[in-house]
Design a protein that fits this description.
alpha/beta; Arc Repressor Mutant, subunit A; PTS-regulatory domain, PRD; 6 domains; five-stranded mixed β-sheet
């Protein structure tokens, strides 16, 4: 049997209703190949006097669960040489042997270790040459000595890394036993713990594929260093933030394993980090706030062309901002098959047209043409936002756990919401679930099998393609949730009756200030709950409202200025006095407008000047002044009377408040009342009311 046969067994056991078509899609082979693998498996089952797998006309399969489990157990207990290696697997194993050899290896030695002929090794070496060259690694041969691989240490590690992270998944199927065994005593679990702490403390979140990739590289780095192989020279192509993250990660590794990693090793880790895919990142462009303004402009333009308001979709806003931030670095997170992207675009030609017509906005930001692949991802995000808007969300709260990245998950989310009116609270990679607060969550939908018991919360495994079988499983789970809710409502009613009876007893004591006492007690309880929430959530500033980041004392009316530069300085004085910003932040705000134009004018008469995250912001907040006489910002929206300076310190702390401000300014009723406000107090109360 080949390695794929074993994986097919695992897939069948994980999903007993899987079809031949789904198996072919999962392993990226033809249905005929899957049928051949199952035939080979049936030969083995027959030999062991077990029940064979039956393939039905509708491509579904039936099998004896107990026999197939025993079959898998026999395969796992078998040695490596019971497997028939494919050509690709042989090449991987030869490379691994050569990389772990200090000198030359003869072809005969390789043939003996793999139990194959010398002629087969020679044929494999021709293919190996092309594979190794892609990683700047070459093999040389010398008569009477044998062959060896030559190249710098980092290139060799990348060769190993791509082997381990390939679809053949050597690390998982047991081929690379030497590599695996060497790490068992060196703390794989401890490395995972270090990575988990690093990700959490750095406020980043990788896709599962990327999380596994960096873990695999750290395994390789440890193994190679302990074997005496160190990086001597390396060309670093990582930005400063990745160098900082790599330094932090390597310090944690040093503390845990005492490896004393030099600068070259840190640069190697930085290169890996810079090429990973992130769902949340602390890599922030100094122009991220400007990006957010341009994304808002795009949403406004789409509103006009599609006759659809997506401005209230916070999820759409932040994810589109992240996508555009990648575009500014000429990077795209390829987290979905391009064929699927093309299919989405073909099915949504109106959205494609509207997106294309709006691309002049991003081309102005980027100072270049937007690539087709970049547009297609924007279309995907727009489609997901439209689907969310179509569905009236119910009270059932769901977390989607996915191992395929954000864009693919968005596509799956669309399919789910076409069938169910769920409130999708968040989309998480598998490794981040244990750090997520599941309080209030009714159900977990996941593209991976549950490896942990989540007490009290149903875990439903679904297919990325969302099949009829998935619909049935989710429906059953929803019915159970509704039944449980009815039971809980009954208990709640009984509790309310009990409270009512106790209240009647208290009233018999004729407390004159009963209502005031109740209100004071509730105030203390609410304050305690609020304090607990703040202590438990270090990112509480991300959730602060506009009225909290723009308190009444940060608003001033009746200012006299002559120029737009002076209006920014006057508004920023409030932030400066309160120690929110440094002096240089004011100059940076003015320079941004001089360099990039008046894009900061959000609405008629209203500007939101800001600088970058590295320009001297010390604390996140807003300050606002109302001018006696408007000034000209040279904006097509006209002169500005309200100047609302934004102090930024990172990508997210201001985001909810900024998003709220954008939506308030689009509310005609709010805008009219804002113009009529005479005092800072009346404006602050207006914001609180409409927010």
């Amino acid at each position: 049997m080949n390695i794929r046969t074993k994986k097919i067994i695992i897939s069948i056991l994980d999903n007993p209703e899987i079809t031949i078509t789904k198996l072919a899609y999962e392993f990226n082979v033809s249905e005929r190949s899957i049928r051949n693998d199952i035939q080979e498996l049936n030969n083995f089952l027959c030999e062991k006097k077990m029940e064979e797998i039956v393939i039905h006309q509708n491509k579904y399969i039936s099998f004896n669960f107990s026999d197939l489990m025993n079959c898998l157990k026999l395969i796992n207990e078998s040695g490596f040489y019971d497997y028939k290696l494919s050509k690709e697997e042989r090449i991987y194993f030869i490379i691994e042997m050569l990389l772990n050899s200090e000198g030359y290896l003869t072809i005969s030695e390789i043939a003996d270790r793999l139990y194959i002929s010398v002629s087969t090794v020679n044929a494999d070496l021709k293919a190996l040459s092309g594979f190794a060259k892609k990683h700047d690694v070459n093999y040389t041969s010398e008569q009477y000595k044998g062959i060896k691989l030559e190249g710098n240490e980092y290139s060799k590690r990348m060769l190993l890394l791509n082997m381990i992270c390939s679809d053949s998944s050597i690390l998982n199927i047991g081929l690379n036993r030497t590599f695996n065994e060497s790490l068992k005593d060196k703390g794989i679990d401890r490395v995972n713990q270090v990575m988990s702490y690093f990700e959490s403390s750095s406020k980043i979140m990788m896709t599962d594929t990327s999380y596994k990739r960096i873990n695999a590289y750290l395994y390789i780095m440890m193994h190679r260093i302990r074997e005496g192989y160190r990086i001597r020279e390396i060309k670093s192509n990582a930005d400063e933030v990745y160098e900082i993250n790599a330094t932090k990660l390597c310090q944690l590794i040093d503390q845990e394993f005492s490896l004393n990693l030099p600068h070259e090793e840190i640069s190697g880790v930085a290169n890996i980090l810079s090429n990973l895919k992130y769902l949340k990142t602390n890599k922030v462009s100094n122009d991220i706030i400007r990006i957010q303004f341009y994304v808002n402009r795009l949403i406004e333009e789409l509103k006009k062309s599609l006759y659809l308001d997506l401005s209230t979709d916070y999820l759409f806003f932040i994810r589109l901002c992240l996508h555009v931030e990648y575009m500014t670095r000429r990077k795209i997170q390829h987290v979905i098959d391009e064929r699927v992207l093309k299919e989405v675009c073909n099915e949504n030609k109106r959205i494609v047209q509207a997106t294309n017509e709006s691309m002049h906005i991003f081309e102005e930001l980027l100072n270049r043409k937007v690539k087709d692949i970049e547009k297609e991802y924007i279309v995907l995000h727009v489609c997901a936002a439209i689907e969310r808007k179509k569905i009236k969300e119910s009270g059932i709260k769901v977390v989607l756990v996915s191992d395929v990245g954000i864009a693919s998950s968005q596509l799956l989310l669309e399919k789910i919401k076409n069938n169910f009116d769920f409130s999708i609270i968040d989309i998480l990679p598998v490794h981040a679930l244990n750090k997520f607060d599941l309080e209030g969550i009714d159900m977990i939908l996941s593209t991976v099998k549950n490896r942990e018991v989540i007490e009290g919360i149903p875990w439903v495994k679904i297919d990325l393609n969302f099949t009829d079988d998935d619909y049935s499983k989710i429906t059953q789970s929803v019915n159970k949730i509704k039944s449980l809710r009815l039971s809980n409502e009954k208990e709640k009613k009984e509790e309310e009756n009990l409270v009512s009876e106790i209240t009647e007893v208290l009233r018999s004591y004729n407390l004159k200030e009963e209502r005031e006492i109740v209100e004071r007690v509730m105030s203390v309880v609410k304050k305690q709950i609020s304090n607990n929430d703040d202590n438990e959530n270090p990112e509480i500033t991300e959730k602060k409202k506009l009225s909290e980041l723009l308190p009444m004392e940060m608003i001033e009316f009746g200012k006299e200025v002559n120029t737009w530069e002076e209006s920014i300085s006057k508004s920023a004085e409030i932030l400066l006095k309160k120690n929110y910003i440094e002096e240089r932040y004011i100059h940076a705000m003015i320079n941004k407008i001089k360099c990039n134009g008046p894009y900061m004018v959000l609405a008629k008469g209203f500007a939101v000047p800001h600088a970058g995250v590295d320009d001297g912001g010390k604390k996140t907040g807003f300050s606002l002044i109302k001018l006696n006489h408007p000034v000209d910002y040279n904006s097509p929206l006209g002169e500005v009377q309200f100047v609302c300076c934004l102090s930024v310190t990172d990508m997210v702390s201001h985001l909810r408040a900024f998003f709220s401000l954008v939506n308030l300014l689009q509310n005609k009723e709010f805008y009219k009342k804002m113009i009529e406000c005479k005092t800072p107090k009346s404006l602050h109360e207006l914001i609180q009311k409409y927010e």
